[in-house]
């Protein structure tokens, strides 16, 4: 078990801490970031997480001197919209929250992205904190400052980089998470392990039963290790101009699968899992990786109840979304390839033929 002290995301004056602790330890935590601004806060959750954890979170924040108003939005990807963002802005106005106020996001990736974007765009930007309750949000989306909403049928078309002032989470949140959402988050944990923590990959291979039994210590360990990988990379490259692109491993084809399925056929983590297999296959075809490594990644995804094939989709369903990707990036499609655990490479100018061949491996 590694030390579970705060993990720093080092971004000069925008640096912040990520804290992963059981709820019983929250009362003893130091949260100096809450002393830096006003006391008014809007705590945003959704109607799945809110009934479970909103009262707990609100009481904790109130114990730290915050004046908390709460808002629950409908759960699901459809809430990542301009309409729901407008609801949050109206609630902020109604609460009289000024530029020294706060937004807190309690929930999964949808709530974090949505509330973070509302905070980024309200009065040209107010502070927010993340309290992620899903494994996907804990391991990935709550860290790094990427916030946004979907528009015109495109995932995260409207967005910003708006770093949180802090991230606080607890492994107990995962005890109420549905199995399919635990698997959804494990895709991002596996991605983090491939990118920068081979020991985490081996832990995922050997601790299947404790993870799925929601044992607190192993959950705390995998959250902490995943956060540590992402925090290190974000600290090197806040705005994705270089090393941070490695975090898109599995996401190029994954986003195409999500979009082709109308954001409803596959959850984000499920699409990323399929994308990871495709990235490994492309790495094999490019001579960067060996087939046994691809198979090892595929077995781990399957053991953690994740799909490795995009059933019901064909290349014709995905190709229009590749066209969109290439239009946005004049240099052409970029894939993140992997030669082995800890070996991740940015590969620009990947040909349509190579992409189609990799996609063929996972479609059907």
Shape: globular
Radius of gyration equals 20 Å
Q: Report the helical percentage.
A: 40-55%
What structural category do the secondary elements indicate?
Answer: alpha/beta
- The overall strand count is 11
Spans with pLDDT under 50 lasting ≥5 residues?
Answer: none
**Beta-sheet strand percentage?**
15-25%
| Separation, N- and C-terminal Cα atoms | 41 Å
The topology string of helices and strands comes to: EEEHEHEHEHEEEHHHHHHHHEEH
How would you characterize the largest beta sheet?
Answer: 4 strands, parallel
How is this structure best described in words?
Helix 1 links the parallel strand 3 and strand 4. The protein is built from 13 helices and eleven strands. The chain starts with 6 loop residues before the first strand and ends with a helix. Helix content is 46%, strand content 17%. The longest helix has 21 residues. With 364 residues, the chain is α/β, with parallel strands linked by helices.
Topology (elements, then pairings):
Elements: E1 7-9, E2 16-20, E3 40-46, H1 50-63, E4 67-73, H2 82-94, E5 102-107, H3 109-121, E6 127-132, H4 135-141, E7 146-151, E8 154-161, E9 167-169, H5 179-196, H6 198-206, H7 208-212, H8 216-236, H9 251-260, H10 268-285, H11 291-303, H12 315-328, E10 335-340, E11 343-347, H13 352-362
Parallel strand pairs: 2-9, 3-4, 3-5, 5-6
Antiparallel strand pairs: 1-2, 7-8, 10-11
């Amino acid at each position: 078990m590694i030390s579970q002290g705060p993990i720093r995301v080092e971004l000069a004056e925008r640096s912040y801490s990520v804290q992963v602790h059981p709820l019983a330890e929250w009362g003893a935590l130091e949260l100096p970031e809450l002393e830096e601004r006003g006391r008014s806060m809007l705590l945003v959750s959704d109607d799945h997480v809110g009934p479970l954890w909103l009262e707990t979170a609100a009481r904790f924040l109130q114990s730290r001197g915050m004046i908390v108003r709460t808002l629950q939005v409908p759960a699901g990807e459809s809430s990542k919209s301009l309409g729901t963002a407008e609801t949050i802005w109206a609630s902020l106005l109604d609460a009289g929250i000024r530029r020294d106020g706060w937004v807190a996001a309690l929930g999964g990736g949808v709530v974090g992205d949505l509330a973070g974007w509302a905070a980024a765009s309200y009065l040209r930007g107010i502070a927010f904190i993340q309290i992620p309750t899903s494994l996907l949000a804990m391991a990935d989306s709550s860290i790094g400052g990427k916030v946004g909403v979907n528009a015109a049928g495109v995932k995260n078309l409207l967005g910003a980089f708006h770093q949180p002032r802090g991230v606080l989470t607890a492994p107990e949140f995962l005890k109420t998470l549905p199995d399919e959402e635990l698997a959804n988050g494990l895709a991002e944990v596996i991605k983090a392990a491939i990118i920068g923590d081979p020991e985490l990959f081996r832990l995922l291979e050997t601790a299947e039963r404790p993870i799925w039994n929601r044992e607190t210590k192993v959950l705390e360990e995998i959250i902490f290790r995943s956060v540590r990988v992402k925090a290190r990379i974000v600290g090197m490259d806040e705005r994705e101009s270089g090393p941070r692109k490695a975090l898109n491993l599995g996401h190029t084809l994954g986003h195409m699968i999500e979009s082709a399925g109308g954001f409803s056929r596959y959850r984000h983590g499920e699409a990323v899992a399929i994308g990871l297999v495709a990235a490994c296959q492309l790495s094999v075809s490019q001579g960067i990786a060996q087939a046994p490594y691809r198979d090892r990644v595929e077995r781990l995804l399957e053991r953690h109840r994740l799909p490795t094939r995009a059933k019901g989709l064909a290349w014709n369903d995905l190709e229009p979304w590749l066209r969109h990707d290439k239009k946005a990036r004049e240099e052409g499609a970029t894939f993140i390839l992997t030669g082995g655990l800890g070996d991740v490479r940015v590969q620009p100018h990947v040909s349509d033929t190579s992409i189609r061949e990799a996609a063929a491996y996972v479609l059907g």
